[in-house]
């Protein structure tokens, strides 16, 4: 693997699915498959061994499912920089919220195109978050109902009013360009605000900011 390549670990209990993903990775410039795991426990072990840029993580696997594997990978100091892209067969999967809360940076359905998968890997490897078009804000809101909101003063007392505005718009699914236009700031200025939010709230990426916005009570499920 060259220094420029994105290292990808494949975790899926179906061998045929792993082989299909590996074939795609192997023929795609800029990507290298660094290993394959048939269950969550093996995914955790291989993530520690290879330190990939991205783990393509199936949700339903034996011994340890993808949610727990994601939690362990994202929480461990030696693999905290590893990004996890969750893959599932179901576009209305009950694990969407749990996966994001565990630290996943993205979520895609397996029946998407090869181009979408490679784009998703690049986006997540670059430090941003990714949700499949069919995994809507409405769905995240529905699963956020399961969480008990924290006090806003506890979660958000370190951020400014402008940063609070930015956070609310991120949670509502606005793009950087849309937020910049709504707040009458440049995209560069907006990125500075987002960087400060990530630092102050201890968030890995945009997906974690969405979770924080809901769990703090800043955004309520189903709100406009």
Automatic annotation (TrEMBL):
This is LuxR family two component transcriptional regulator. The keyword DNA-binding applies. Keywords: DNA-binding, Phosphoprotein, Transcription, Transcription regulation. Pfam families: GerE, Response_reg. One of its GO terms (molecular function) is DNA binding. It comes from Actinoplanes lutulentus. Coiled coil: none annotated. SUPFAM superfamilies: C-terminal effector domain of the bipartite response regulators, CheY-like.
